[in-house]
Design brief:
By secondary structure, this protein is α/β, with parallel strands linked by helices. It folds into two domains: 196 residues, Putative cyclase (Glucose Oxidase, domain 1); 217 residues, Glucose Oxidase, domain 1. Helices cover 20% and strands 22% of the residues. Strands 1-2-14-12-6-8-10-11-5-13 form a ten-stranded mixed beta sheet. Helix 13 links the parallel strand 23 and strand 24. Helix 5 runs parallel beside helix 6. The longest helix has 14 residues.
């Protein structure tokens, strides 16, 4: 979050016993969930995004976050569909070098190669690493109104004296406790950003430019802070940003719950939607502690063994469904410019987008009504529901929106099931129609590669997005042609397959196709009812799956938006170590 003039200038080795005690403590936190293997724990470091929280930068003309429940389950819709107006400076967020580093072609004093390192071009390994928590709680509120207490090089050196020297592969996290204390609903929430900007309260603790220089020289490429920004008030925001970003660093702003982490040893990750040309972006931050998993992930990231599975979001690409008939389309992905930086020759921008644009989460509440609701479906859908409940049991209800889905449900050892041999297996006379991924396909995979296990993430490799994801005017192969019967639909699982996967303990099913439903609305509804009624989730619209092998580790996190029936996010894979 920030508001700047010019180039976005701001106005302003732990003993084992201690680790055991820490892990017993964090399991009691509402931010912590236990991983499927019973050893690793996932800790959420993301603020809740909601209109009644101080989740957006409060200076004009930065837009306020909005969520619109565009359709609700009933006569006109089988699903709950949401539209988002969301700026990259919303909630817990990611900064990348073009936030302050000018493009090389501008030939300015702050130009450099990292001026092209946007959110869609950052290499996936850089999003995570070993969390190194620098405790600066003594700085909280220790400054005049409107002024930030400063994290100095000596704070970093104090950490290094107690622990070890910082290095490449570390994610340095400044823990002051600021967001834990002050991120509250309005009116109390004004204390988070607005009051410090108005010089009514002390500013949030932040690093001095000299601190960033020290970390840059150590080779650190990722940081995080639980302050509202990485920019000290009132006038060191831009110097601090540039001091770090010129080294190619990225960082999390507005993290929270850093108190649950050990000083070193946890794997920390920050993932957000892949906006084209984004100088910053909304994100989901989390960490993994306990067991052997963090060490494996830290080492894979350090060796740059990572694959990005998310296509880039851009207005001229087919990132949302146009529907098969007039009036059925989702909100198109729209980029809205609202503030120009002359120095960077770049616009601040927000996005008006469907909550399932690009890579996204499908929570149970997408297809299931909330508890106590009795939606009146259209007559045709009532017939489908009767058939479904006769075969698979009650559809049920759910209020599990994206913000309530545990992080460990969407992360785990990936099992890639190759179903692209189904492509071309249907007859044109039957279109629109999607080839069915059946339980037999899963069983054949298990016979050859071993049975599925609880906590695995099942990823169907269809090749559809890789083949057809193109800019206009060559974009029709992703959605439009399959939905209207001009080409074959993408392979998709039916409800029988979902039920079988649930019997194996699977919680997350992913695909590199546009969605898990396919082009037949009846089968799609049953697939999503099966997912929701069995408390399973989907991750849809992936790419590059050919680069992934079973046994690699899948990481996905949706934005933490309250009451959102979809969840935009980013998926990456960390490869198995050689």
């Amino acid at each position: 979050m920030d508001c700047r003039d010019g180039g976005f200038f701001r106005q302003f080795a732990i003993p084992h016993l201690v680790v055991m005690v820490l892990l017993l403590t964090v399991t009691m936190s509402p931010f912590v969930v236990l991983a499927g293997d019973g050893t690793a724990q996932f800790i959420d470091h993301s603020l809740l995004v909601a209109p009644d929280y101080p989740c957006t930068w409060p200076s004009y003309p930065f837009p306020r976050f909005q969520i619109v429940h565009s359709r609700t389950i009933g006569r006109s819709s089988v699903y709950n569909v949401d539209t988002l107006l969301i700026d990259g400076n919303t909630g817990t967020q990611l900064d990348v070098p073009p936030h302050s580093v000018a493009r090389p072609d501008l030939h300015r004093e702050k130009s450099g190669p990292f001026g092209l390192s946007y959110t869609d071009t950052i290499e996936p390994w850089q999003f995570g690493g070993e969390a190194c928590v620098v405790d600066v709680r003594e700085l909280l509120d220790q400054a005049p109104n409107g002024v930030s207490p400063l994290v100095q090089p000596e704070h970093v050196e104090r950490f290094e004296k107690v622990n070890r020297k910082l290095r490449f592969g570390d994610v340095v996290l400044f823990r002051s406790g600021y967001s834990d204390k002050y991120y509250r609903p309005f009116p109390e929430g004004s204390r988070y950003v607005a009051d410090p900007l108005e010089r009514e309260t002390p500013g949030f603790p932040d690093p001095h430019p000299d601190c960033m220089e020290l970390l840059g020289k150590r080779g650190v490429m990722a940081l995080g802070t639980d302050s509202a920004s990485m920019g000290p008030l009132p006038d060191l925001g831009e110097p601090t940003h540039y001091a770090g970003l010129k080294y190619g660093m990225i960082w999390t702003e507005s993290a929270t719950n850093l108190s649950t982490l050990p000083a070193t040893g946890a794997y920390y990750c920050m993932l957000g939607p892949k906006h084209q040309g984004g100088p910053y972006g909304e994100c989901r931050a989390f960490s993994i502690v306990g067991g052997d998993l963090p060490r494996r992930l830290i080492e894979a990231a350090k060796q740059k063994l990572a694959v990005d599975l998310s296509p880039t979001l851009a207005p001229d690409f087919p990132v949302t469904s146009p529907g098969s008939r007039a009036g059925e389309h989702r909100q198109a992905y729209v980029k809205v410019d609202f503030l120009y930086s002359d120095y960077l020759d770049m616009w601040h921008h927000t996005h008006w987008m469907d909550a399932m644009a690009g890579t996204h989460l499908v929570p149970p509440a997408f297809a299931l009504p909330p508890e106590g609701a009795n939606p009146q479906y259209a007559e045709e859908v009532r017939v489908w529901l009767a058939e479904f409940e006769k075969e698979y049991g009650r559809r049920g209800t759910s209020s599990m929106t994206a913000d309530k889905v545990p992080l460990d449900w969407t992360c785990g050892t990936v099992r890639v099931i190759d179903v692209h041999s189904l492509v071309g297996s249907t007859s044109a006379k039957d279109w629109p129609f999607s080839p069915a991924i059946t339980p037999e396909h899963i069983q054949s995979f298990e016979k050859k590669y071993g049975v599925l296990k609880m906590g695995d993430v099942v990823l169907f490799y269809t090749g559809h997005i890789d083949k057809y994801f193109r800019a206009q005017p060559n974009h029709l192969g992703v959605w439009s042609d399959p939905l209207t019967g001009k080409s074959e639909g993408w392979p998709a699982p039916g409800p029988d397959t979902i039920v079988y996967l649930k019997s194996k303990g699977i919680r997350c099913v992913a695909t590199d196709a546009p969605d898990l439903g396919g082009v037949d609305p009846r089968r799609a509804a049953m697939t999503y009812w099966a997912l929701g009624s069995r408390e399973m989730v989907g991750v849809e619209f992936l790419a590059n799956v050919a680069q992934v092998k079973s046994g690699d580790y899948f990481l996905f996190a949706a934005l933490k938006i309250r009451d959102c029936h979809g969840g935009p996010g980013r998926a990456i894979v960390l490869k198995s170590l050689p």
